[in-house]
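Deviations from the work plan: none for this task. Representative record:
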Amino acid sequence: METALTPEGLSTDILAIANMPVLWVLALGVFAAIIVQSLVYMKAARKAGPAADISEAELKTSFRAGAIAAIGPSLAVVLVSIALLTLFGTPAVLVRIGLVGSAATESASASLAAGTMGATLGGADYTQAVFVVAFMAMSMSGAGWMLATLILTPILRRGDTKLRRVNPALMAIVPAAALIGAFASLGIAELGKTPIHILSVIVSAVTMAVCIFLAGRTRATWLREWGLGISIIVGLFAAYLAHTSGMAPVA
Amino acid sequence: MSAADTAVTPNASLAEFDRTTSRWGQLTMGVALILSLAAPLYLVFFTDLGITAGMIWTAYLAVAAAFFVLWFVEPITYYPVLGPAAMYQAFMIGNIANKLLPSALVAQAAIGAKAGTKRGEFAALMAICGAAMVHVISMLLFVGILGTWLVSIIPTDIVDVARLYIFPAIIGAVLVQLVVTMKQPRVTVIAVVVAALVLFVLVPAVPALAKPATGVVVLITAVLAWFLRSRKTSATATTLVN
């Protein structure tokens, strides 16, 4: 199967194809869809405001409050996104990490997809073809959330009683098990790679634990949203030190 | 406006609001869905990399096996909090729990609107619009322009190391964050034990399971977590769910 790849497909210059102008145009299209949606919603809200017992001034206040509250979390996402630029290129990061998905789900999807091609994300075998297959798979998976939203929202709205009456214990345990199962599997799989991979996982995990601990003990709740960005930077820094000090296997 | 008018108009204008937001919500989300799939499809069809349909479906199955439960569970979970209109926003903008919900709550508090009322729903909707604008601008500016420039000036040896170890550096933190916020110690232990057994015992014995390994872990963890759940907490679950 892998013999079908052309010589071009074996190039590791990801950014040459990941930053193609067409991809930029499509990514900006997704941003445009969100902007149009917000404008239509705001106009509709202003029109129906009196019926909902909310004044124009209160609508404005709500908009401003939401915007200000989003600054911190947005910048935290920015930091994580920049760290992922070399892996996926700007357009894919903007759409997949910045918008629809999250750093966690999308990089997990990409890692799983690369694994089916016998490659490691960002490794010497992370070729253009592996990138494209990973990008395709994570976009299809992201489409799963959007399709489910498009299908389920009208159903939930018509008569949500049946879906909401699903056993609460089932709704509490199965999603948690699916999430933790998926990420535990991916995390433990990293432990089977090089010593520097193991080091990166552990340093990043410990950094996050410290962030969460400090956020709980002090009033620095911002550490909660910045935890992922900080852990990635610290984890990568540890990896860089280990890599340059010769812990890396000679490639 | 006469008293008789206001008795009828509110319902009519709220109904119109529902119609407008659901029609445009579906339309814009549909467009975003198509555009987001078009990007990788373009690369598959218009670059000469030799990618086959088999490679894509194999990769998709491995990813879907890990995440398909969440596709359905997350929309159902967030619906009561978000309401129909904001659903189409939330699943396009992402980062719901850590960005959109806090924004909505802050806005409701700012104007003294209770969640579950129409006032609350409108305040949340406006807050998410505000959050969306801030997010769109900061992504385009700081990632689109600044980030792309930053990557172009960082020395290649640093970029190479970052690319090589970014995934382990993400997964360690994400796992800890998940375990702490979920507060499900029993599920966590089951997941870790199952993952270790599948990856280091089952897969070496049955190499064919290497590709769907994560899906296998998810499935076994979900089943075991259900059957090994604490009956004591499930009896009191009705008061704990919210």
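Chain A touches chain B through 173 residues (CB under 8 Å).
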